[in-house]
Amino acid sequence: MDLKNNLRTETGWEVIEKSFDPAQVVTTGSNFMIGNGYLGYRGTFEDWGPDEYVACIVTDTWDQAEGSSMSELCNVPNGLYTALRVDGEPCSLNPASIRDYRHQLDLRYGVNTRSVVWEGQNGQKIAWESRKFASSHNPHLLVQRYRFKALANGVVELKTGISGDVWSLGGEHFSQCIPLEFANGLLALSLETRETGISIAVVEGIRLEGKTPEKVWTSTEGKSIFRIFRFRMEAGEDVVFEKVVGITHSNEVEEPLRSAREEVSDALDQGYEALWTAHSKPWEAFWDGADLQIEGDPEAQVLARFNLYQSYIATPTHANLPVGARGLSCQVYQGAAFWDQETYNLPMFAFTHQEIAHRLVAYRYDTLDGARRKARKLGYYGAFYAWTSGKTGDELFPDFFFTDVLTGRPIRNHFNCWQIHISPDVVYGIWLYYQASGNWEFMLEQGAEVLFEVAQFLVSRVHFKMDKNRYEILRVLGPDEYHENVDNNAYTNYLSQFSLVKACQVFDRMKEEHPGRLAALLEKTGIPARAREDWNDIADRLYLPAPDPETGVIEQFDGYFGLEDIRPDALRKRLIDPGEYWGWPNGIAVHTQVLKQADVIQLLAMLDGFPKEVLTANYEYYEPRTEHGSSLSPSVHALVACKAGHHEEAYRYFLESATIDLYNASKKVMSGGSFLGGIHTAAAGGVWIIIVRGFAGFELTDAGVAFSPALPAHWKTLRFALKVRGCRLEVVLSPNGIRVHGAPENPGKIHIRLPGAQAWVGPGETLGV
Amino acid sequence: MDLKNNLRTETGWEVIEKSFDPAQVVTTGSNFMIGNGYLGYRGTFEDWGPDEYVACIVTDTWDQAEGSSMSELCNVPNGLYTALRVDGEPCSLNPASIRDYRHQLDLRYGVNTRSVVWEGQNGQKIAWESRKFASSHNPHLLVQRYRFKALANGVVELKTGISGDVWSLGGEHFSQCIPLEFANGLLALSLETRETGISIAVVEGIRLEGKTPEKVWTSTEGKSIFRIFRFRMEAGEDVVFEKVVGITHSNEVEEPLRSAREEVSDALDQGYEALWTAHSKPWEAFWDGADLQIEGDPEAQVLARFNLYQSYIATPTHANLPVGARGLSCQVYQGAAFWDQETYNLPMFAFTHQEIAHRLVAYRYDTLDGARRKARKLGYYGAFYAWTSGKTGDELFPDFFFTDVLTGRPIRNHFNCWQIHISPDVVYGIWLYYQASGNWEFMLEQGAEVLFEVAQFLVSRVHFKMDKNRYEILRVLGPDEYHENVDNNAYTNYLSQFSLVKACQVFDRMKEEHPGRLAALLEKTGIPARAREDWNDIADRLYLPAPDPETGVIEQFDGYFGLEDIRPDALRKRLIDPGEYWGWPNGIAVHTQVLKQADVIQLLAMLDGFPKEVLTANYEYYEPRTEHGSSLSPSVHALVACKAGHHEEAYRYFLESATIDLYNASKKVMSGGSFLGGIHTAAAGGVWIIIVRGFAGFELTDAGVAFSPALPAHWKTLRFALKVRGCRLEVVLSPNGIRVHGAPENPGKIHIRLPGAQAWVGPGETLGV
Ligand SMILES: [Ca+2]
Ligand SMILES: [Ca+2]
């Protein structure tokens, strides 16, 4: 079927670009990318360079480029560089010379394929096709099969190798770049990063089939190394080569260059088909656990899979590392984790692939020392997680980020020091993983330490209001970044209480069941045993802005209702420059009720137990006041619209969230006009949340699993699987009902509640209504 | 002697403008003004109008002009309007036509005199002189004697009456303006203010002497009414008239027009000499109490008197009304009291004219309800005094005041809601008055109620930090307005503790001595008796930023030392527009240590008991970081420089403070380029503080009076009187020592401590070293 934005799909498992559109280079490069959580390779053409945003972003390579004060992941040299010339004319892609074109992303296996028929200015004609994937079996490897076929007689020059001429957002990262050619024919660039001194190796090898070249030579040009093959070809002749690129770095292996050489040699020996077979298995396992099958809405089907695909390739599965806010699609947002990791990216993995979810929560444990350092630096104690968290968990977000486009002055935003909900959000994520997996040993070994240190941070952060007999949390920034410097932000206060309660629960269970391990943890962390009483006291007396008794609306923060009540569209007219930041310190939204995203909606999306009237009242109050300046906003609106009974709006927000990237629907420009491409991984994660938690109404409580479906009216069926505490549940929804089937291999019974029926469902059993 | 800025003095009792300088119209109009605390009449020429900032500002006439949202005092029509024409040519002041010129302000009696010899384009020649004062006996009256003399034959037309064509900062205030001519020859304008509906009457009468006019007629022109006299004059002939203008309004008298008519008629009957005699007595009494006699520094002498003069005429003595930040010299700052009233204006009166000081503190009692309303409106209780306080004490300061000159956007400053030190400052003033006067009955009747309500406000405002076992005061703005939104501002916290301690002391003494009155007060205010324990607890555990153990420096607020450490001159280079506001939200000083004024210096100037090392350390730290963007800044620097032993700098800051107005030294432009004229009454009050508290080292403690002199090296003597608890002390300092004489009429002994001597000094006794 045809999709928007010049796209179509055939089976719901692929996205096809209908024709070449040079204006969409940024968007297509992100959407058609391949990756494996270790590296991301943009969906660009083989002969492109920095102007077309060619990038292969590698995780765990944080470095500050020359002249920059921002750490970012490196975009390494492009080992898949390949260019053709026919009779001296480069086979450049321009609409006038393209006779046939197909560009496809295969979602099931993460394969990017492209075929072109090209005609030159003097009648030259050639066809080529490439097919590439980032190995899911060995994440260091990019594998490509490339074929070209002369459609007229001519001299064809094939130039292929490693191009160092790639885009880098922050500037030059490599202080050293040594081109190497090895006796066995492999090419390599041996690099070293400027600030952090990481050694990175990019090794390339090819295996040529078919016609023998007339001449072959090697060329080093600047920071690049190529091999050039010259063929005198007759119409109908073709050449095929397989290429393997290996990328390793010293944060991961002892000797990057040697490892990469060995892996590339070995891979070339195995050959494309063997590499493909190894690669395909993890993908099949991924879809077996995570696929969302939708009948009756082919657009929704492909959108769901596209977002699952992007979620998966953005997430490191080989090590405990963060999910970047733009994944590995570009260097924007520093390849670092934000609060979105726990609130948007984690849920899908927590209920489908717990081994990956475990990596994400373990990453937060691994970065606890960074969070401790941040807390101490700001005058607190415990763990204050970084707003922008890389390898160590030290704060990467700079004090000055935006520039005031009207004056050119830097703006001091306080995302790094006032957006304290990040710490409770980390606890939320740990609790979610623990609830889903039942992994109490993880909690004992790692989770409890995070929970306790976050609780301690809150002890050091809250203030007590004597005359009101309550704790307050002052001067914060909620998820709604247009209102800095507010008190008693509803989201922050509720989530803080949540994390204090969980800390107390874990403390109590450890005291009961594992007193020795509790004592050891307290000794290790220096937390006094009586701290648990502080946590409990704060949880007890922390001010939680309640639904207004008359309207049911929860005030986003103290004084919010007193701000100017204007709507986003009317407010937008006050912009002097369209690139202005709307928030602190003097943006147009600051003194108004207009929100970047609605914190109360976010809260209602995350914590269960609010009555439906409250959900409805808050949805109806906040929705028209929300500008959706964040890509995180539509998905929680979709979810809460579901719960609030606004089904059409829920579907509209689902579409909005699911198409932010694919339909290039995110037109938001950052202040200062920074690069705006890249995959919005939180929105991608949000699509699973909307479908499973919203449309299927899935909820996990201490009692078990519950569903309150609100299926879009035109969907015939929705099928998906969940993993809960060791049990696989297969769920089928239709307009007539819902069936939940316990997989035969399940270790035991699990309690399921459906509208009008509930039961303990054992292995192989089904509950349906 | 010659002074700067085209001025000179002859005896130290007058300021003389040496020649007419049209460029100084704004400055001279303020400096040469006359007044009596009820009205201020700028030192402008009789025939001038709005372009020359003619103004007669009348207290207690707050009104919002058409289209304005700011209350300000009215500038009433100019009853002293007088213009001459000779042979049809207006005798306009332009340097080409002036043959002789003298403009003098007599400080001793508040008289403005001017004489001009004028020559026309056709050889006309005339001399005139005027002499005017604002009666100190009946403050409704302006009295003038005007004489002109033909120096060549010609037809002279004298036009005199009431001109409504005057400057008004905020716009038109009068919705009604009826010109009236009465049978007894009086002219009047009967006015009504637009917003507040105040009736104002301006009545004028003259008594003509000498030559009889050829023709007399009356003319109403717009909002003016004049009488025109035509004389055919020969060289040498002269005409003299006396004019009395009466100004009353309905906030003060029942029937303004009738009162003013009666008062003007009566005054004209009495005649100029009788009016002068009555006027001179309050002035003699003022100087008897307040004069600062300096031998050896004639410039300092006239500067001291000029500032005392301006302090006196700015201060309402007829009613409990505020001292405006620009007195009655113009409409800037809304004619309203700021915290300067207690900290800069009050001290001189408290130790020289306690009946006037009493009016100022009684004004704060009268406006307690306004302070209560403000507290409630912002979610607190008790008394949160207005940052900008007019008649009722309700907040006059708008939420949006400055405009960002770079973007044209309004700036939300938080002077009104975060500068909470105003309430402790009011307590400081009450305590100062009480200490100086010993007026315990005032404390019982009015002061205690203010102290208790301010203490209650603090209870509602502070937060307790459980883990640090201390109270904190968060999100404030100290006197240094470049740093909004700070925590634990040293000045605010110390002054808050001061006011809580005083509230407890008064509570305890009332409980002991006047339990019935205490009970009545608690019942009236609804303050529970246990509140006293809260006050004590907060005073006890309130965090007071202490001098750093190593450096002795007190941190101005939490995190101040971590800000960029740059000097004001270097910082100034970052301005894009010279009119930019330096402070919140994104001004150049916000993220630096550069201060508008130094809060710690202010604190050390006001509260005694800090060791000299601390004074020195803080002076040396903060002085180079202070931009002195406030006219309040130099005087506290002078005072603390004295105490810190930096005598030359103390004298330099004394000169700076004393000449802000007279030498037109205040070049500061407000953001948005508002009018910048007017008398800086706080700086005027500060001059007394520098000389008496700084150079003479006067201090009043519970034990008595002490002096630690630090006389400028070139001063031969400094003489002044003080009034302390009913005793008049006459103080003489010289480089050799100090003598303090108790006046014979003193009711008892008072304890005096001098360097190296102390004694109880009885009536007629002297202690000297
Ligand atoms: Ca709507
Ligand atoms: Ca200095």
TrEMBL record, chains A, B:
- Enumerate the spans annotated as Glycoside hydrolase family 65 C-terminal domain: 701-756
Q: Name one Pfam family in it.
A: Glyco_hydro_65N
For this UniProt record, give its keywords in alphabetical order, as a comma-separated list.
Glycosyltransferase, Transferase
Signal peptide extent? none
Q: In what residue span(s) does the Glycoside hydrolase family 65 N-terminal domain sit?
A: 17-250
Matching SUPFAM superfamilies, A to Z?
Galactose mutarotase-like, Six-hairpin glycosidases
Ranges for domain Glycoside hydrolase family 65 central catalytic come to 305-688
Q: Which family does it belong to?
A: Belongs to the glycosyl hydrolase 65 family.
Protein name from the UniProt record: Glycoside hydrolase family 65 protein
Organism whose genome encodes this protein: Robiginitalea marina
